[in-house]
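User: I'll paste a sequence; please echo it back and then give the predicted structure.

Assistant: Echoing your sequence first, then the prediction.
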Amino acid sequence: MNHPTSSIDMIKLLVIKDWQIYQKQLAGYVAGMLLALSLVGMGKPWSFAAGSLLLLVLLTVIGQFAIQTSVVTERKEQTLPFIMSLPVAPMDFYWGKLLANLAIYLVPFTLVTGGTAALVLSTPLPDGLLVWFLLIYCFLLMCFCVTLCIAIAVESEGWNMFTMMALMTLVGPYIYGIGRVAAIGTNLNTNNIVWSAPAVGLLTGELAVIAIVLGVTSWIHARKTSFL
């Protein structure tokens, strides 16, 4: 979608505003993720388990934190009337919130994904873990995007909390489930990086869900002529 220059500038200001507010908290999460990656890289069973769990927790928490504070809490504090007094169109506000939250999440997400890949490929850890890790991280990214889009589109705090909790409870069964898939699980303790049909199908499905929820939410907001 093409925006006039003024709209693009306003979107940039909205993104920078949210980024500046949450960059200190983001730095704390990134420090925790570096600690978790160092634990994974040690290669010992206890450190691998502790580091992996810490990575999952931090990736989940940072996403929920960003959504809760920048979307849900702002709505509860009724900052929208102030936003409406500025030269901001509904789509400007939407893109500002969407891009700001994606930036806040994708910075640690990219760090964790790249760091994990580097550790798996450069340490004695089995290379077969790479596919397993990437499938889990992509699932967490999908959960974040779904939660973010619903938080932006739906004003009900109850539905937002339900979505967050429902998706969080799916993480454990998903990790267990993909490990039980023979084409994926049999390669976890080997040095074979195998993108089997089930693995490719899961990754494609997760990326498709992300594209769909972003597309549908953008289409809904594009039809709005006012904030109400």
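Residues 5-41 form the longest helix (37 residues). The CA atoms of residues 29 and 61 lie 9 Å apart.
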